[in-house]
Amino acid sequence: MRSILLLCIIFSSCTPVKFIPLKNSYADKPFEQTVDKSKDQVWENIIDFFAKNGLSIRLIDRTSGLIISDKTALKWTYEKKDGSLEFPLAWAAVPKVINTGNNMPYKFLTVNGDWNIRIKESSGGTLININLVNINCYASAYTLASNSPSAITVAGVKSTGNFEKLIFDNI
Known about the structure:
With 171 residues, this protein is an alpha+beta fold. The protein contains three helices and 13 strands. Strands 2, 3, 4, 5, 10, 11 and 12 form a seven-stranded antiparallel sheet that branches. The chain has a three-stranded antiparallel sheet with strand order 1-8-9, with no helix packed on it. A three-stranded mixed sheet has the order 6-7-13, with no helix packed on it. 20% of the residues are buried.
């Protein structure tokens, strides 16, 4: 009897959620741009950009032209009803999540990811490839069954292209 009661409590505390997908279309592939600077100039500018903005680097391999950031807290935003960004300078767009148990939105706790940057020489300059990977988005809401937060992982977070534009502007 106790095990049945325990199962009922556990399952009643599970919060049904509704994900509201992003309306705008965001790039599903890495951002690429060729610049007319040498590979060495681009390399130094990107390293300086990371240092000036307090972004730590997990892996740096100059011979292969690869820079991978540590897990980075992302500046994120929701979309408005028309699909535009609430915070236009955000680095990531996050789908809204509704707790269908009480029709309240989830509160996002953290949104983070890794930046992979590949720099290589190409005809006409230096090719830069920037990709946001390993995105983790965690949200929480209070459930009706208990007075404690229920945490979920949110999928569908997309790069807005703003971080990538910052890097290209600083090269």
